Amino acid sequence: MTEATSRRTRLSAVLAILAGGAVGIIGSTQTWLEATVDDGSPVPIAVAGADALAVVAPLSLAALALGLALTIVGRVLRHVFAVIAVALGAGLGWGAFRIASQRPVDAVAGPVTDATGLSGEKSIAAIVTEVTATPWPAVTVAASALILLGGVLALATAHRWSSAGRKYRTDRAAGPRDSIDSWDDLSRGEDPTT
Predict the structure, then answer these.
(1) Residue 164: its pLDDT value, please?
(2) pLDDT value at position 60?
């Protein structure tokens, strides 16, 4: 694999993870489900992604941070982070797919309780007549697939990526140092203890 190909695969993996995380964050603020509550007259209640699936925002933020960290970590941590990205993508995808396909009543419980004052799964299930899904759970499933694929790509190619570079490393001082050298380091704004 040439260096240009290595850079492209690294960029593709990182961008896939970042894009999936960004779409997941955006999706957590959008309406995922609409619950129709029949409490005398039908009332629609919009349910945001963060209310339907509480882990959407945290997992998406973790994917964003992980994608950025992949650009500067060493070889061992690249593999560890790639495995974590795969786990984040799988977890987020499973949760969003469950919401999209099953539209469970427990996903609308919080907003329904806020709107009606009723709590408890049986009470809420008794007054919720219909739960419809918007496209956002499916969009989040696609975003989680990006995170997962970015993690798999990183896992498969991380050993070929170039290192982060010398700007993240410090050189060791040559020879013994005395107390005057420490004062000179402090004068230059450097930490003599490193």
Answers:
(1) 60
(2) 97
